[in-house]
Fold each of these.
Amino acid sequence: MNAIEVKNVSKHYAGFSLQDVTLCLPRGTVLGLVGENGAGKSTLIKLIMNATGRDGGSIRVLGVDNESMEFDAVKEDIGVVLDEAYYPESLTAAKLNTVMKYTYKNWDEECYRRYLHLLNLPDNKAFKDFSRGMKMKLAISVALSHKAKLLVLDEATSGLDPMIRDEILDVFHDFIREDDHSILLSSHIVSDLEKVCDYIAFLHNGKLQFCEEKDVLLEQYAVIKLSHEDFEAMDEEAIISVKKTEYGVEALVKKSAIPTGFSVEHTTLENIILFFAKGEKNR
């Protein structure tokens, strides 16, 4: 079963459209949603959470149509973290616990305290005095403390230093050990997605370029360097995207179609995404 199913979803604004997006997040896995600023990641997350209405298509979350009355109850099973944590400035982590007891039916005080301790968050410091990293760790602690089965994270690691990001990614790894737990993680930090994700969905200018298993992407594609002459001799069907200079050509190609003798660069997920976003297909 899928934790999230998005089928042919569109949303139109003046000057921007999210167009015919289809993807799914299988239960028990992590889906990384990547794209440049303005690509449509936050719009898609708002649509999934029914924070804005879709213009076409369908969305099911944890088995329920997200525009149905049943979805209100399902929200209890979803932990949401946006790119900013929004809590009253005077609240402390301890006082926030009291608020959340009356917000979520399944609020787990002991679990919340464990996360505060694990992430080195103070009990009695006012939220307004938290650093950005502390604010995001607090929001993640809340999301993980009401027995959520699905985490929806919109740039939750953006702007944080690498040590804090690694700390948070470790928490996500622990969460996903439960078979019925799933994560949708939106980020433009591709290295984070490569560490934790099972699937990658790439949005570019409001269009879904691909949604595929991470390991399949890394196995399927490679970056090679060619002279202009060798490039012209390549099978056009093998070429996904190219970058040309006066000295030669870099190309993202299907590994299965690389002729023997060509030098293959170490290919990362970031290489693949950059070629899809910025490369050219024409010769």
Amino acid sequence: MSDSSRPTASPPSSELDQLPDRDREETAEWQASLDAVIRNAGPDRAVYLIRRVHEYAARAGLRVPGLLTTDYVNTIPAAAQPMFDGDIAMETRITALNRWNAAAMVTRGSRLGLGGHISTYASAAWLYEIGFNHFFRGKEQDGSGDQLFLQGHASPGIYARAFLEGRLSEQQLDGFRREAGGHGLPSYPHPRRLPWLWEFPTVSMGLGPLGAVYQARFNRYLQARGIKDTSASRVWAFLGDGETDEPEATAALTLASREGLDNLTFVINCNLQRLDGPVRSNSKIVQELETRFRGAGWNVVKTLWGEAWDPLLAQDTTGDLVRRLSEEPDAQMQTFAARDAAYIRKNFFVGDALSTLSATLSDAQVVELFENSRGGHEPLKVYAAYRAAVEHRGAPSVILAQTVKGHTLGSRSNPETPTTR
């Protein structure tokens, strides 16, 4: 075959060019509009518009591929938070007492070299207390109720709550990790050790989250075959962000979405920490987990920032604050939580727009933003996230709640009597 008779190669085309286009002129106009936005307003504005159009299309019922990550802000804005149906002052007091008693229990044991975890429940207290006070259903009425797979290291907080309810004695709390005498409490949840309190063994190698998926699926099996009415039962799995590194913790995510297990909720305490340091210093674990769960077909609810951030985000007309929050890696966020206002102003509020924003804040307010004001520490934010999860239909939900490890805000009760009833 001569060179002149060889077929000429077609110019490369994108994947979209392989799809039929019934109106190429209209398509070209949309593309030209996007080019104009990039040219006149910059790429950030173009990305913003694409995301908003994508979200609008999804709300309109169009079948569009889902976004794998969203902006590093709360999924539920302040204006959309539901009414809180509890007594916030009373619940704050209860949570403070439970935090104190949990810490006292571990501290007393540590004098004997027994060890124990204080930080887990300290950071996750509101994640549990909002559940116990408003969402978890007991088994007294219909015998079904909810199933809880609790984060094992948070067991002191669960014991502290049981003590406050009068179901455990002070002697039993003092026997934490000392079962030999017959009155102690096991370190971690296990029904063989304390069957009236614990339903499932957790802690080990991410088996709690894996077991929760199969429990939710089994509940559907019981319901479908008329064996037991589990229609109102919900399975809750609590885990830490570091625990998601365990293969078992996320091994059955696609099974849960494929089966449409909207009776399942994961609550991940994202304190950006492991026992030995940041989860991953130069990344953002919340965004990583959001990608993983959204990719597996889950409904994702992020509760990252507390009420102190709400007015700042409302004033962020340029989007600079949201971009800044999105680009800071976890290790730097941990640094901000431990530094003073001058450091934060210099290293976070960078640029004219953010400097102007921070000028409206006192030094104490600047420190408060990073030291305490995280979504997982505020009952109204947690309540809104839980409400969104339980009302979602068609897919399992995961709540990614940002906290500060070892958080103790509002945890001081009476230091003279650490086991106050």
Amino acid sequence: MTEPKLRVESLEKYFPINAGLASKLLNWNADQQYVRAVDGVSFEIEPSESFGLAGESGCGKTTAGKTAIRLLEPTGGDIYFDGRQLTDLSGSELKSFRREAQIIYQDPFESLNPRFSVYDWVAEPLDIHDIGTEEERTERVYRTLDNVGLEPPSAYAGEYPGDLSGGERQRVAIARAIVLNPSFLLADEPASMLDVSIRASVLDLFKRLQRELNLAALYISHDLSLLKYMCDRIGIMYLGKLVEVGPTEEIIHNPKHPYTKALVASVPEVDPDNRRDGASIGGEVPDPTFETTGCRFANRCPEVMPRCRDGEPPMFETSDDHYTRCVLYES
């Protein structure tokens, strides 16, 4: 059986809250509080597979992604990459892993160094990892720029981020990510800052590169329509926890968890005659600094019952490879 490219088990990432001076004086003996941004998340991504994490802003999906590739240090849990435990790596071993897993950030206007030319920005990873001679690096940078659609490469190599459009900047960011020939890509809201007119071409570029370079990918987005187009499977996060995981078509067309139903119902529908049975949700998202004893969605759920507050439900399998964290499917 093939080893998953990435597997996380019970992943946790807590951020300590730094209280103000007055609060510290009034509560000098109080326990340290934490924001439980990621609170026991488990998933795996197969080689060449596209997996998506979706949810409202603040649900923990970006933190989960960054922690899974150790851009953030985990508070707890285990991370495996090609079967190798990542949580204990340091020094040269961690640097070697960095060649395999690359990230593309949400905002191409912020993620590129304005003082670097396109050539310098794409070549920097090769310098850091001491790959090739100067001539070989130049050839590799030009080939990569051509591969992401910046043609001819010579016309772009000497440009600076301020000279480029949003779509061109994102292509430069993609070129920097793939110039090391990684096997895993984390894309955090990769099209949210782009004009609608160029989003499709950038997403098609991602799909082509994944296919040609045999990349596994984790896409993070609040946009279910984007994840439907890009991903083989989707995980839905709420308040630091996965509440549903399954094949993309199953999640979109047959959602089980009440929160997932509400997310799917909120996606704009082109055909006005195609009405969805939506699930409206009210109330406020609970304070992530407090541990909950029951279902995290209970105070907003339209189908809540007393059993929901007895304890946090586990994942129940509702169909082949489709799991949901809801007591409605306990039997």
